[in-house]
Amino acid sequence: MSLGSVPLKYKISIDRDQCMKCMRCVDNCSYGVYRIEDDKIIIDSRKCTACHRCISMCPRDAIMLQERPVDYRSHPLWTTEAREDVINQARSGKIILSGMGNAVDYPIIFDRLVLDACQVTNPSIDPLREPMELRTYIGKKPEKLDFTMKDGDVELNTKLAPNLKLDTPIMIGHMSYGAISLNAQLSLAKAVAKTGTFMGTGEGGMHEAIYPYQDHSIVQIASGRFGVDIDYLERGAAIEIKVGQGAKPGIGGHLPGEKVCADVSCTRMIPLGSDAISPAPHHDIYSIEDLAQLVRSLKEATNWEKPVFVKIAAVHNVAAIAAGIARSSADAVVIDGFKGGTGAAPKVFRDNVGIPIEAAIAAVDQKLNDQGIRNEVSIIASGGLRNSADLAKSIALGADAVYIGTASLIALGCRVCGSCYRGLCPWGIATQRPELVERIDSDVGSENVANLIRGWTLELSELMGAAGLNSIESLRGNRERLRGYMLDEGLLDVLKIESVGA
Amino acid sequence: MCGIIGVIDRTMARMDGSSIKKALSLMDERGSGEGAGYVAYGIYPDYSDCYAIHVFFDNLLEPKTNVDRILQKWGRIVYQEEIPTYEQPNLKREHIPWRYFFKPYTDLMVGTTNPDDDNVKRLVMTINSTVEGALVFSSGINLGVFKASGWPEDVANFYRIEDYKGYIWLAHNRYPTNTSGWWGGAHPFNLLDWSVVHNGEITSYGTNRRYVESHGYQCTMSTDTEVVAYLFDLIGRRHGLPSDMVVEALAPPFWDEIDEMPEKQEEFMRALRLTYGPALMNGPFAIVIATKDGIVGFTDRIKLRPLVVGENDSKLYISSEEAAIRIMDPDVERIYMPRAGEPVIGRVTQ
Amino acid sequence: MEPVVIDAKGVHYTPLNKQIRAAIASGVKEIVLNNVLGQRFIGNGLRGDAKITINGVPGGDLGMFMSGPECEVFGDAEHAPGNTMDKGSLVIHGSAGDAVAHSMRGGKVFVEGNIGYRGGIHMKEYEGKRPILVVGGTSHAFLGEYMAGGLILVLGIGHEPAVQDRGIGSGIHGGEIVIRGDVSDRLLGVGAKKVEFTGEDLQRLTPVIKEFCGRFDIDPSPFLDTNYSRIIPASSRPFAGKYTWE
Predict the structure, then answer these.
(1) Under CATH, domain C95-246 is a member of which superfamily?
(2) How large is the greatest C-alpha to C-alpha distance in chain A, in angstroms?
(3) What is the pLDDT of residues B197-241, one digit of tens each?
(4) Reported ipTM
(5) Using a CB-CB distance cutoff of 8 angstroms, which residues of chain A are in contact with residue C246?
């Protein structure tokens, strides 16, 4: 028996009085929602992903979008989504693929943390008038200084390991060329160069067009080793080993063959049109000492001149794993929380595996602190940071800096429709189709992304000033400046913060 | 809030406590009558090879038995007595101040280059975090802290500090916010050879505290000032940085200033900031630290609290207010205000 | 130019590699390392066309990211020689550990003896670069797992059958695995399929066989007159049908 069709996810309608038939909606929709028949715009709402491209391009605001226009019988357990997933799998027998971050309604810990401000006993600092230091160095720090005094002169014996110098503790996380378009990646690269920070190349190698910004790039090496050769490693300002990703901890990824166009193929150094498969583990890392070997191997290959980061997904045992990483010669540990974005992940992983970044930062910071090595290695946090408050809270929980991903894509137009895996992104981001990629002008795009970083940086300065801090070092791990609002005791203990009012 | 004053005679000539009592009382306006204290170096010449351990006991039964037991396990009590005190009408006696002169067993600590200090440091942490009704508030050699809840002159008279003679004195008048005016919360804070008086608030306390805790210190006084003593002990004693360098670590120059420095100095300052980032102190503060070798005064990097320095021959004064210095020494020759974050150092000359 | 001889006895790999780099930077074309024992990362990321002779047992990741030189080892090699190698060759007069030629993208790895598990895992080819792994002895399980390009050839000298471990070519989506003699179907991994080995294939592989035998002083004739099994991907998109959209 046929299962029949499920109701529409989105219903598009056009206010025909407003519409002037400019056809921009028809031209802009890459999903084929609109077509023209007899001079009339016909709508196929079933194809809509709510990407808002048509709405944003309509000069008359004539397009309306309604989510879930058809109700199911409401039920607290058998939600619409639960029912539709069953129907989908009953039809296909396959794994459900999804895009963007975790879409389950878990409580967001960030929203239950509040920041502190000064009143009387210590003065607020006005960042407009007084120095405000956000400069952040990412990399290994010595435990203590070794120096000798000669005739009143200090001779420094400690040799500092290479560190990345960030003007603001916001970096852009790894989104590979292949997963996103070259123009999207170029926009991000230009933005970080403008704002004195860094971006990750992702695991897909480095396209020639990014070379001018290589000093602001962190090159990633993942289990697929795409595009990795000695030139690539030497180009990066730092190297990152990707072990896991917050959106899909414990599994690999693959770029479908249809996205492997000529340019992607040559950047990744794989054949045209073949799947680019990243296995779940690195096959030269089956244990922590193997990770240390890979870290040292990368350092050895680049003459110990590059910081090496290790990125892991935030999982239950994240603190102990991070402590192992800290001992591996790695310079920074990157933790990606379970709300992190992705172009494609099995829905069951995206929504169910891993832990929130807030708890992961606190646990890792605490573990490293307990072991007396916290300052010797940097912590970079990522996975669902939406604004400067999330940024400030991440740092107060113990991060040195953050990676943003989805936020930077929203700055390029992304409306989080979550259909990245289809390769048809009408905003020219998660696609390799030339006519769509062209929609991003990387000069304009980079200015938008740079503005976002600037805006957050200004807000962070204000938050710090209000808290009476003029240096980011004094916010880092400063749990005293956070309070938990309606958090349970167990979580307060993990976060090592007090409740509001305490 | 709070008033501080410190003095050193660089020739180690000893001064009695009468003049610092006057100076501190002059700054009564800065306090609230809920805490005052004094520390003096060189006051126990008869026991100059012993750690003078001052303890507040709630009673002399269980807490003291426990402390005796712990001390006797880790060393020898050479002499002990109740610290002489004199009832004051305006001062409520909340604890019994006691002092031990203690010699640790050197061979009991391993894995350290400074077994005696590390032994005593650990004992202080153990007693303060585990023995109910006992608080060690002074643990250095040939020095002693005297503090209580009350106005400066009452506290001074309670201990009759004019009976003690030291070559360094620090004093503090408290206006509490973080903790109520309990005796342990009064300044100076002391650990081993380090004593601290502090005016202001350490906004970076959370970060600083985590850093010292990660190196084996336990913050038990529920106030921000003790962390300064631990930072000096960690960076100064254990990591071997001289005092001026410790101050540079705690209140470093701004990055834009570091960027302008000559290459070698830039490299050193950058290394210092990177290494001791979590020790950087933020917020409004003026601090005077003492060790047996001298005193160091400094303020936060943007000078949110006052600090005045006076000099007269072998004497160096550091205070919140100039008047306090002048009442101690009407003949003071040179008075100046140090720059933000700049250490003012008075070292003994012999 | 005389070869530079370095006594590696007790030398840590970092100073050893620094010496090698310095020698190559000064124009040296031949380097001999004596008493090598466990030093990892030899030849890591090296460019150029120098020849490095290694007497002893080098540690893991020999020639990782290497792009050009040749390392000839008189001894066994440990974990992952030829890891992510780009160009050049490794010639090992002995056996090697697990993950030999992991993610290798170009050049040659010749192992006279046996290799461990996951040999040639994720080898890949690109444009003119086609990595070659030749094993004189046998291989353990998961040979050519996730292979995305290149050639793995196992001669199985002294082993009948040449390979008897499972999981050959699991997830293979490019390249080919050629094994002397017949390979039981039950040893093939998911996504791998066996196809007929033709005369044309033999002709194509003849130079490789000859070169390998030449390096180890082995008579090539028995290997030019025998049958092989050729294993290739069932599809270049092994996971294409695994998913449905949200």
Answers:
(1) Glutamate synthase, alpha subunit, C-terminal domain (2.160.20.60)
(2) 93
(3) 999 889 999 999 999 999 989 887 767 888 998 999 999 989 999
(4) 0.88
(5) 88, 96-99, 347, 418
